[in-house]
Amino acid sequence: MIQGRNRKARGILMGVACGLATLFASAPAAAADTQAERPFLGGFLQESRILYPLTIGQWVARDEHLYEQAEAGASVRYQHGDLRDRWIDVYFYPAGVVPDERVRAMAQGTVDGIRALPGNGGLPAGELETSQIALSGDKDRRHATLYSAGFMLARDGTRYASAMSLLAKDLYYIKGRYSGDEAAHTPEGLHAELKDFTVRLVRESRLYSTGDCWLPPPIVQVAAPDPNAAGALVNIGGDGAAQAVGFADRVEAVDTRSSQAVIAQFMAYSASGRWIAGCNPPEDMTPDVPEGMREIRFEYRLPEGDADGTTPRLGSPRSGVG
Q1: Residue 239 — left, alpha, or beta (φ > 0 → left; ψ -120 to 50 → alpha)?
Q2: In Å, what is the CA distance from 146 to each residue of 114, 179, 182, 194, 207?
Q3: Rounded to the nearest 5°, which phi and psi values hold at 98?
Q4: pLDDT surpassing 50 at residue 258
Q5: Whole-model pTM?
Q6: Residue 197: enclosing H or E segment and its boundaries?
Q7: What is the chain's alpha carbon radius of gyration, rounded to the nearest angstrom?
């Protein structure tokens, strides 16, 4: 009963924490600093759950693939109705804590790489576009920034219209690719379709992770928490007295297993700049899967020796900062 009540309190306070987190510009940096020496996969991220919709308008998820290399994540192919030659490929793969400029650089690199492919020289290529996605149900949360572009490409002597999209949300990259024959499609048309699709996908998908990214302050029992003590960030009261007081390094509570203690822990965690969007406690890693959704599960093993949890092809180590 206690565990169920605390879990409900966490769910309610997650929205509050999202709002508070936007007030502290140092939050990502502070969180990243605490993870600087920890492995990325198997350490910072140990488990992830991704819930994605099986249908988005006329698009239906027909295929799902988990890649052998853990850092490559998984892909889902959405087919448009019964048209076997019309599909969008979506890729989910771990990012860590990444600033928008890093995401933009990756998106620009993808576009530049496509332009540089043999046969693509001189073909029309649109400029990278930036859009803001208001996340459904999170009106106080910072919007997700979507980078996208439309372009032409050539493959095996045939020209195609194509589009790509990329954003980072809840410690993961979400990337989309959409191509179609030049005779039936334009880059501008596919680009607009992909943007609309991506907005719906991002709003309807849910991403949960846990690992060393989850570092809330410990809850300690005291007879009478002092809301006026130096460093106090949060005061949860009841019956005319403080029941739990949150600090950057601890939560003092009359009852360490009470809902008040859990609420103070969440709020202090966010207010101190330590909470990371998308990171959850281990006991919340069995989310309900609603009808019309499908779950992808990732379990990352701790790497051996001095490895960072990724294969050598990435070329550089990663930690909490992707």
Answers
A1: left
A2: 19, 19, 25, 11, 17
A3: -125, 135
A4: yes
A5: 0.80
A6: helix 187-204
A7: 22
